[in-house]
Design a protein that fits this description.
Helix 2 runs parallel beside helix 3 and helix 4 crosses helix 6. This protein has 13 helices and 36 strands. The protein has a 21-stranded parallel sheet, with no helix packed on it. Strands 34-35-36 form a 3-stranded mixed sheet, with no helix packed on it. A two-stranded parallel sheet has the order 3-5. It has a domain of about 180 residues: Ribonuclease Inhibitor (Leucine-rich repeat, LRR (right-handed beta-alpha superhelix)), CATH 3.80.10. A hairpin with a 2-residue loop joins strand 35 and strand 36. The chain is an alpha/beta fold and about 650 residues long. About 20% of the residues lie in helices and about 15% in strands. Pfam families: LRR_5, LRR_6, LRR_8.
Length: about 650
């Protein structure tokens, strides 16, 4: 009896558990999507327990009452909405996300805004691309006291005033990108104590005279017409970490708060640098003093300048691409930005990197104190006019890992030394360097031992016309180099020698004159090989020398023979990926005419070698006929001789 009771109890427990899980199971979120259905009105068959509803990309013009009490997220973007009934949102007491982007909300603003009075719990609102002005925006959000994020990009705002967000004190993120804003009145954002991210990109702002938004962590002012950026110089700590002033008309560095946490400064595509790094900064400070008419500051210029220098000390990344730098001071950089990790000076007018502060002659520079940028790992000097880099550059960069010198006129030093002169640069002995880009520098010969005592992992020599790599050019990289590119260099097998490299995984020799791969490639453990746009007629040499380890190969734009494609079958059987196989072609010659066909799909039946060369057949037949004639003649003569005997 006890056994039956225990069995019944176990069975009951299992069944109860199963029934309970079956009865109580519900999807965690009830969603419906009516996106791209060409709807002209809200569907009537909506589930009243919906939590997420997507009606975007339709043709809805009117919005009636939505009786969806559990709805939390509603997307009506990219419709033709121009009329919203007064109580349309009244039942949506749980809705915290509303997307009305790309509609016609600039119509019937007063009437439509009444519906928004019920959205006091809304946290995220997108009303971008509706041609709204400041007054219309104010009406739509006047009762959204819980609002945390608002997207207003692509509207028609021109002036921002303090009453715009008077009732929206919980705002954290505001996006004003791509409006026509030319003026921001004082007090517009100061009362928004939670505001962290502000995007004012692509507007018409000309200057920022008195920046004092302590609470911001990210500010985007790119693509305006800003000529100067000045912060209030007080003792408050600013939380700003990311400042984007790219694509403006800045002549000087921005004047940053004395106390800040700025990590990322974007100044690309401005007009900074014609006077040098430090002068650009000090001139900005002087401009600030003149504009604020602070005579006491002018008298204490020295101490203020020191405060200004300190404001840059925490920078990790600075982008100075496409400015007007002709010379760059390492000493100034060391003094201003000791914690810098990444520096972008590409597309300037740089001819050299100076050793010391501007305004000193070269003799004095050599006596300057040792400079150091102990954290700088990445420098981009692409598209300048640099021919050499002094040894002090590398001596002061103990952590340098990536150096981009594409599009300069760098010349490599010939001697086996690590000393750079004023006519060349030596990379020898730079042990921290891992990635070096020397594309398009006009290099014709990579001198012997050019990279000895380095630990390069990637080397890009593409675009150096008539490139010659001798037997010792890559000496020292056998155990470190993983990626090598010599594409677009007019190189050939006879001009390129690659030693055994035990770590080399990726090789790009595209857009050259290679017709085969020599045996020196046999000891390269390649997984990626780019052979595009060369003179290969077959890839038999690839099968012989490098196919064992390959995972990926590019082969298009070569002169393959349609009658010699056995190598393709072998590659396919080896499961080597060929991403551009459908772009590869082969050529077939018949009666002196050459035709091109898809390498993958051609159905040419190539004739035997004798049919291809009929003259061989005639030669063989002639030899046979001569042989038979000789045999017949010998037999006749033998017969006559026997008769005579």
């Amino acid at each position: 009896m006890a056994l039956y009771f225990i069995s019944f109890l176990v069975l009951f427990t299992l069944c109860a558990s199963l029934l309970s899980s079956t009865v109580t199971y519900k999807p965690s979120v009830l969603e419906q999507s009516w996106k791209n259905r060409n709807l002209s009105s809200i569907p009537v068959e909506l589930d009243h327990s919906l939590q997420v509803l997507d009606l975007s990309n339709n043709a809805i013009e009117h919005l009636n009452i939505l009786n969806l009490k559990t709805l939390e997220k509603l997307d009506l973007s990219y419709n033709r909405l121009n009329f919203i009934e007064k109580d349309a949102f009244k039942e949506l007491v749980h809705m915290d996300y509303l997307n009305l982007a790309m509609n016609l909300l600039d119509s019937n603003v007063i009437n439509n805004s009444k519906a928004f009075l019920n959205l006091y719990g809304l946290k995220q609102l997108d009303i971008s691309l509706n041609n709204l002005d400041s007054e219309a925006v104010g009406l739509y959000i006047q009762n959204a006291t819980a609002l945390e994020q608002i997207a207003l990009n692509g509207n028609s705002l021109t002036r921002l005033t303090p009453d715009l967000f008077a009732n929206n004190r919980n705002l954290v993120t505001i996006d004003f990108e791509n409006n026509n804003i030319f003026e921001i009145e004082e007090g517009t954002f100061e009362h928004l104590e939670k505001l962290s991210v502000l995007n004012l990109a692509r507007n018409n702002l000309v200057h920022v005279c008195d920046f004092q938004l302590y609470q911001l962590t990210s500010l985007n002012l790119s693509q305006n017409s800003i000529q100067f950026f000045l912060s209030q110089q007080n003792e408050n700590m600013y939380l700003l970490k990311n400042l984007d002033l790219g694509y403006n008309n800045l002549l000087y560095f921005p004047v940053l708060p004395k106390k800040n946490r700025l990590k990322y400064l974007h100044l690309q595509y401005n007009k900074i640098g014609a006077l040098g790094l430090e002068v650009s900064i000090s001139e900005a400070k002087l401009l600030h003093q003149n504009l604020t008419q602070d005579t006491e500051e002018i008298r204490n210029n020295t101490s203020d300048s020191k405060d200004l220098l300190k404001s840059l000390l925490k920078l990790r990344y600075i982008d100075l691409k496409a400015n007007d730098f002709r010379d760059f001071s390492l000493t100034s950089l060391s003094d201003l930005m000791q914690n810098l990790e990444m520096l972008n000076l590409s597309d300037n007018c740089l001819q050299k990197i100076s050793l010391g502060m501007l305004g000193k002659d070269n003799d004095n520079q050599t006596q300057a104190k040792p400079i150091s940028l102990p954290f700088l790992r990445h420098i981009n000097l692409q598209d300048n006019e640099i021919e050499y880099l002094p040894k002090v550059v590398f001596d002061s960069l103990p952590k340098l890992e990536m150096l981009i010198l594409k599009g300069n006129g760098v010349k490599l030093c010939l001697a086996k030394t690590n000393i750079s002169t004023d006519t060349c640069v030596s990379f020898r002995g730079i042990r921290s360097l891992k990635h070096l880009d020397l594309r398009e520098n006009g290099l014709e010969t990579i001198v012997p031992y050019a990279f000895i005592k380095t630990q390069l992992m990637s080397l890009d020599l593409a675009g150096n016309t008539n490139l010659f790599l001798g037997k010792r050019s890559l000496e020292g990289l056998q155990r470190s180099l993983k990626s090598l590119s010599i594409s677009n260099s007019n190189a050939s097998s006879s001009r390129v020698f690659i030693p055994c490299m035990t770590k080399l995984r990726s090789l790009n020799i595209s857009h050259n004159r290679f017709h085969n791969l020599s045996q020196s490639f046999r000891c390269l453990p390649l997984t990626v090989l780019d052979l595009r746009s060369n003179n290969f007629t077959s890839l038999d040499s690839v099968l012989t020398n490098v196919a064992v380890t390959l995972d990926l190969i590019y082969i298009s734009n070569n002169a393959y023979s349609c009658c010699n494609t056995r190598w393709l079958s072998v590659l396919n059987k080896s499961q080597i990926r060929i991403p551009d196989l459908d772009q590869a072609s082969c050529q077939y010659e018949s009666a002196g005419n050459i035709t091109f066909h898809s390498l993958l799909k051609h159905n040419i039946q190539c004739r035997s070698v004798f049919w291809i060369s009929p003259s061989i057949i005639w030669a063989v037949m002639l030899c046979v006929m001569i042989f038979l004639a000789v045999v017949a003649f010998v037999k006749i003569m033998y017969a006559k001789g026997s008769l005579i005997v």
